[in-house]
Amino acid sequence: MLILNIETSSDVGSVNVSKDGHCWILREEKENADHARLLTVYIEEVLKTLSLGLNDLDAVAVSEGPGSYTGLRIGVSVVKGICYTLQKPLIAVDTLKAMAYGVQLMDKPGQKDVIVSIQDARRMDAYAAVYSSNLETLKAPFFLTLEPDSFLEMIPKGGRIFVCGNASEKWSRLVNNSSVIFSSVNCPSSRFMEKISFDLYREQKFENCAYFEPFYMKPPNVTLPKNLI
Distance between CA 115 and CA 150 in Å, rounded? Predict the structure, then answer.
């Protein structure tokens, strides 16, 4: 089973092809990727390297957010174009849950530990969700302003919280607690989508290509030029 996984919810531009839920090839730019210019280039590169075409794919998965308004729109638009044209299933992967899977993969949290995913929403704001170490949702995605005690109530008795995401560095400057572990998973990546997209494919949980929209959580922060105010 071949799935093209696409992540554009932050400055990271990330594309991979997974085979039966495991990464086969990855193309990723971590520093201010120009999604509008580079996303289709990355897709072409990974498929060409594998001597595959878009028709060889079983499905296309996209990070649905929350995250960057512009990045999400670009990623979803490209995926909808592929899926609509070639009649491929469209799979939406929760960005915060995908990062939590990255923690599960990289940090091996214990049974009593929990995972907090926080995605940057500018200033000291963030999108967050809380998961058990086996990725059960303990607190669904929500919006907050980061404070020193923002997630401390989530520390389980005898356990720890593992914090991941591109807003984790902000919170690390505010908190000092030995039960808080800051993960090396500090940004979204398509390599953390592959197991989730594979499971969703097996469960036949596909999106309606015509009506699917990214999960923005809050309206975009749009400012008008001074000459238009």
Answer: 14
